[in-house]
Specification:
Layout lengths: L13 E7 L4 E9 L5 E2 L2 E4 L4 H21 L5 E8 L8 H12 L5 E2 L8 H8 L16 H20 L8 E5 L3 H12 L3 E5 L3 H11 L2 E2 L12 E4 L8 H4 L6 E2 L11 H8 L3 E2 L2 H4 L2 H6 L7 H8 L2 H15 L3 H18 L1
Parallel strand pairs: 3-5, 3-6, 4-5, 7-8, 7-10, 8-9, 10-11, 11-12
Antiparallel strand pairs: 1-2, 2-5
Helix pairs in contact: 1-13, 2-3, 4-5, 4-12, 12-13
Length: 345
């Protein structure tokens, strides 16, 4: 693999590989850009099919954090980490202590937090070995409710722009993924009067959401072709690709998953089909916004900043219409402009 030629490499400042034989730790930390401050981004634990898949994922996620933090107005750079393994059976206190020691060697250039497969309890174990952890219990804590709130508000912004409606009542939303964020998003949407169609690998999560929010359950591959107003990808990335774009019936794609577009050109394909796309790292920034208040935590101030996602997305949608380009390109331009202005200041 020609590492430096990977499109996902994108001039990362630092990529580090960590192993610990005793605990079984295999981890990759990617620091994309620290212009705005120390790199901050969660750790994902996933049973990757190959090391190459893990490398590409952490690189893409890291770059996304740089842009996410910039557009959200945070004094943070972008970074991400992954632990290769099955979060359902490979976790141990020793593993996360080893992970904490690994992060500590970076000297504060990167702060980790929770992501897919990782929870606040895991982060607290790693925190025993290093201060460079975020989303801590007793401080900002679990970021998922704030990610869900931002995503919900982003959906409202998309509905306002695309459908000219202020209310979600009666609208149909297909939600792919019912993890912590997906569950909270379902609650917000249900309370707003939306009708939910859901899918997930976790059968218990499906049953809980179906019972609590009167959601309709469909198969994993059926979620894309549902006759809905909004498709909300809330699982892993790259679900918007050559295959799914051909069957998606929703006029809005707005969800909390990272790296939703398999390739940048898929944003153009969505625009050509008249589908409004809410750029993932803008709409799902609520969690990292909450983490940014870690040192002097104030939930009300955090919520107030998360609520700004609504207007940020409206600005992006309007600019994309004016310039006749895809929304993701506008978001990227915003992020790069913010970073460049900081470098030149």
């Amino acid at each position: 693999m020609a590492f430096f030629d990977l499109p996902a490499f994108d001039n990362h400042e630092q990529v580090s590989f960590f192993t610990d034989e005793q605990s079984g730790l295999k981890s990759i930390v990617a620091i994309h850009d620290t212009t705005l401050g120390p790199a901050v981004g969660g750790c994902r634990m996933w049973n990757y099919a190959s090391d190459e898949e893990a490398i590409i994922d952490v690189l893409r996620l890291s770059r996304g954090m740089t842009y996410k933090n910039a557009v959200a107005g945070l004094k943070m750079g972008g970074g991400k980490s992954v632990i290769i393994g099955d979060s359902r059976q490979d976790k141990s206190p020793e593993l996360f202590r080893a992970f904490g020691r690994a992060i500590h060697t970076l000297g504060g250039r990167y702060y980790s937090a929770e992501d897919v497969g990782i929870n606040t309890q895991d982060i607290m174990i790693a925190h025993q070995e290093t201060p460079y952890m975020a989303g801590l219990e007793g401080k900002s804590g679990d970021p998922s409710p704030f990610t869900a709130l931002g995503t919900f508000l982003g959906i409202k912004a998309a509905v306002k722009h695309q459908l000219g409606k202020d209310s979600l009542s009666g609208l149909k939303v297909a939600i792919q993924g019912l993890g912590n964020v997906g569950y909270h998003l379902c609650r917000h949407l249900h309370n707003a009067g939306a009708k939910l169609v859901v899918t997930d690998l976790n059968q218990q999560a499906l049953q809980n959401v179906a019972k609590e929010f009167n959601a309709t359950i469909v198969g994993l591959d059926e979620i894309y072709s549902q006759d809905v107003d909004i498709y909300a990808p809330c699982a892993l990335g790259a679900t918007i690709n050559d295959q799914t774009i051909n069957v998606i019936k929703a006029s809005i794609i707005a969800g909390c998953a990272n790296n939703q577009l398999s390739e940048a050109r898929h944003g153009d394909l969505l625009r050509d089909k008249g589908i409004l796309y809410a750029p993932d790292y803008v709409i799902n920034a609520g969690g990292i916004i909450n983490v940014s208040f870690e040192s002097d935590y104030n939930a009300a101030k955090s919520t107030e900043k998360v609520e700004k996602i609504y207007n940020t997305l409206l600005d992006i949608f309007q600019a994309a219409d004016t310039k006749q380009v895809q929304t993701a390109a506008i978001a990227d331009q915003m992020a790069r402009s913010i970073i460049a202005s900081h470098k030149n200041s």
